[in-house]
Amino acid sequence: MTNRLTNHLILAGLFATVTCAGCVSLKNVAETALDPDFTREQRKHQIVESFESRRDTAQFQAAIAKWEHDDAQGCEKLLLQLLMRSPNHSEARFWLADLYAEQNNAVAAEQQLRWLLRENPQDARAHHSLGLLLESSGNAQDALSHLQQAQQLDPSEPLYAQSTQAVRLAQRQE
Q: How far is Cα 31 from Cα 10, in angstroms, rounded to an integer?
């Protein structure tokens, strides 16, 4: 009788999880729910991580929607909230840097890009973005250094080579 009740509770839990989380999570939840070595605490941790990931994705998408509706202040607020909770959300940092650059706040944009590079010095996109920002701020030497780094890290991206060439050409003309 208790095995039957336990099985019903497991199935009810799986149904509730699938209903709330979607079918994508079904395989992982089903595997862990039936794995006797997977502790209750591990299952709880997995569910919390899944929820937090979906919440971050939803908040990031909401921030983009604010931006697309010309609500830069609302976008910034959502991105900052997201980064307070999940500081390693690199896409949110890139968007926040772009938002600050769009608002002519080069210092704040540079802070976001440098944060990304501290966390991942091999991020070609962050080097490229920082290079463009520095070039637009009149710091062509540092800009060229970051643009070259981006090109070295990802030689398959033609935009990095084009940006490097454009800054070199601009330097020769000065």
A: 12
State the Cα angle at 109 between 107 and 113, rounded to 5°: 115
Classify the C-alpha dihedral 62-64-67-69 as positive or negative.
negative
Q: For the domain covering 87-174, report its CATH number.
A: 1.25.40.10
Q: Is 14 exposed, middle or buried (0-12, 13-18, 19+ CB in 10 A)?
A: middle
Instruction: Say how far apart CA 115 and CA 123 lie, in whole Å.
Output: 11
Q: What confidence tens digit (pLDDT) does each residue in 141-155 have?
A: 999 999 999 999 999
For the stretch 61-70, contacts whose Cβ atoms lie closer than 8 Å and that sit 24 or more positions apart, written own/partner, are: 63/92, 63/95, 64/95, 67/95, 67/99
- Cα–Cα distances in Å, from 58 out to 30, 39, 46, 85, 128? 24, 29, 18, 13, 27
The structural domains of the chain, with segments of one domain joined by +, span 87-174
Range 21-48 average pLDDT: 66
